[in-house]
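Researcher: Structure prediction, please.
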Amino acid sequence: MKFFGAGILGMVLFVRSLFADAEGTATETLNPPRFEVAVQSGYLLGVFGNPNSYEIGSEFISGRIRWGVNDSENWTRGYNQFCLTLMAEPIFRGVENHYFGVNFGGRYNFVRPYWRVVPYISGGLGLGWIDSHPDMRGSQGQDFTFNILTGIGVSYQIDERWKVDAGVLYQHLSNGGQTDPNPSLNLIGPQIGVSYSF
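Model: Predicted structure follows.
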């Protein structure tokens, strides 16, 4: 019983340290950095809508600009970011071999006073190019495609400049009905990243 009680106390202290502000890296007044650069990597699996079992590596470089702060006292406290993401995605399993694109979107970060853990949601629209094989079943009908990205996760603030992220990413690729058939791709999977603020 002593070990159980000590284990519970240890877990409480550990979880509290994740959210606590060590050495004053967070302030009571919300003043997030204006610019941020992030590198993210993920592994996405095809989930529905395509007869092939796609597996894609997502490699992103993102630039983020803060464009609004909500310093309220409720759960919506946080800030918006406009995001420009460059995408390079090797296709490990599927008809095509690679996808390159760009995505424009937004991210909202939910910030609590003195917490190092910051939940976020994100989404965006973009365009790109895939090495399509229209003569093969389930392949994209043409090289030019549109993309939709949606994500949810948490970031952990290491210090005033550096953060690490972990979350789940959904991606949709389609040419918007420009060809028939237009099988599209729907992908979901884990994503991790690191960001630098300035």
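Model: The first strand starts at residue 35 and ends at 46.
Researcher: Thanks, that helps.
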